[in-house]
Amino acid sequence: DGPAGASPGASATWDVAFTLADGSTRIAVGPSLSPGRYALGTDPLLGGLHRELVLGVTAAGDLELRDRTLRAVADQVGLQADGSLLIEGELPARTPEGAELVLRHGTHRAEAAFPVTADGDRFSVTVRPAEAAPTEGHWYLHLRTGSAENTDVTGETPVHVAPCAFPSLPLPLPVPTQLPDADRALTLDRRCHDQLFLDAGPTVAPEDRGPYRGRLLRERHYPQARARTLRDTVLYSSFDGRQYSDSPRAVHEELVRRGAALDHLWVVGDARVQLPPTVRAVTHGSAAWHEALARSRHLVTNTHLPAWFERREGQRVVQTWHGTPVKRIGQDLAGTLCADLAHLWPQPLRGHQWDVLISPNPYSTPLLRQALGYDGEVVETGLPRTDLLFADDRDKLAEEVRTQLGLPADKRVVLYAPTQRDDRAYDDRHYRLDLALDLAAAESALAADHVLLVRAHPLVADRVPVNGGGFARDVSGYPDLAELLLIADVLVTDYSSVMADFANTGRPMLFLTPDLDHYRNTVRGFYLDFEAQAPGPLLRSTDDLIGALRDLDSVIRRSAESYARFHTAFCPLDDGSAASRVADLLFSDQG
């Protein structure tokens, strides 16, 4: 029987020993032992999961008997000629087709998945190091089989490693990167004796890591660099190096179009960020990044710069921010739940760092001044990231994006882009996924003639739980949200500022807001009268959303007046030339 009171996935372990007249002694075995595995069937105490007895080796080299749920065991690990990692081993009995190897972060639920090739009871999987562990931390290996129905395996189980493969570990993996000042370590290893994991080090090079080195860079290297001559360089930062996107991208492309005689640098904090040849990467936190902050003549950012940054004479700092404020931000969070969240409030006021703050519309100007504590120059230019929606070649680009994503031409494209929930955070850089949409119910009702693109907020770390059916696609890692807006026939959101961007398309918007009262009264609150001004219906459930999508013509008619008022209020300056106006500001007199 299974261990009493056990929860699903629990295991029990027994020592194996000879019993002699003068007492017991354990049985020592060599590391070459192949574990013996013996199926036990199901156990109602373990939720009906299938179990097995495993005769194996402890960390001390003694024989043990373990009762556990079925799982994959890797017995060979190594590098292939192209630098990819090959893992081979034994599958649990009756593993269904379509299994995949999942690497999941040990703190949050970010994932990377790779297809598994099965041959009888054996498996092999190739892991490309550049895609394996995008952020720093421990990434544990799991075998995922989808549904556990009619199989001997749970939907997901950890991958263990056989003692015969221990000598191959730890195994350093080569990590190709376009970052010139990075030396990222990625190592396959084991912990808890036999559980496989990838140890992903920071993107920044070893010589720039650690609190002591960080303090030297801030307090010595940066001040020394500020004393040196400014360079004709533009340093761009979008969401602290997470993406090549947003308004900084639009400004960069405008300057390139003009042929400006400038060196272009882009802050990158994630090795997955792909940059065009017109810009060079500089790793967030590196010595080169500190120097670029000190010596770049122009800086364009959509978030706060470091607290220790000091704008020097001759530098031009343009703060584009990242959208029309719909929900409360900055100083205006006082009195909300967020006032007690250390990662949001109180924040130091950094407006003194900027020469000019870009406002997307007259409505936003006083709100941004107040919320960001800024009393300097504000210029209403429109939002540069929306320029793509007005581009002359937007139809061609839309077709290219659809082809890249493999979207069928005969289905309506629905983009679901909810904002993050501040009361659902792991820490100041990683939020939990909190989807109001029941993906399975939506697929059952809409898959015949719809495709759903799910875009998590950039701060959300968890994986979007889409299956392989093709209806729901996780596009959270797609480089630029503006290109997704270009191809969406319908936007579904909640309280995200993306609603103001999408209003420029004239296409319908639906708002899935089952937590509206909690969000308004307890979490963030709004600047606008959200219920009165939203340019589309506020829906309380997945069934309501499905009904709205099925009767979209009626939704469009009923929302026409509110949509028009919303567009007038929040999009009066969006005309495809906002980036050009911001580029002009970079070279205007600084007074």
Would you summarize the structure shown here?
The longest helix is centred in the C-terminal third of the chain and has 19 residues, at 552-570. Strands 9, 10, 13, 14, 16, 17 and 18 form a 7-stranded antiparallel beta sheet that branches. Helices cover 22% and strands 27% of the residues.
Describe what this molecule looks like in 3D:
This protein is α/β, with parallel strands linked by helices and 591 residues long. It folds into 4 domains: 12-69, no CATH class; 73-200, Sandwich (Immunoglobulin-like), CATH 2.60.40; 210-386 and 577-586, CDP-glycerol glycerophosphotransferase, N-terminal domain (Rossmann fold, 3-Layer(aba) Sandwich); 392-570, Rossmann fold (3-Layer(aba) Sandwich), CATH 3.40.50. 22% of the residues lie in helices and 27% in strands. It contains 14 helices and 33 strands. Helix 6 (394-405) packs across helix 8 and helix 7 packs parallel to helix 12.
Helix amount: 10-25%
Q: End-to-end span in angstroms? A: 81 Å
SS summary, helix count: 14
The fraction of residues in strands falls at 25-35%
Large-scale geometry: globular
CATH superfamily of the largest domain: CDP-glycerol glycerophosphotransferase, N-terminal domain
Summarize model confidence as the mean pLDDT: 87
User: Any guess at the CATH architecture of the largest domain?
Assistant: 3-Layer(aba) Sandwich
Computed structural class: alpha/beta
Computed Rg: 27 Å
- Give the low-pLDDT segments: 1-9, 147-153
- Domain count, please report it: 4
Major pleated sheet: 7 strands, antiparallel
Q: What top-tier CATH class of the largest domain fits best?
A: Alpha Beta
Examine the coordinates and then state which fold CATH places here, giving the name of the CATH topology of the largest domain: Rossmann fold
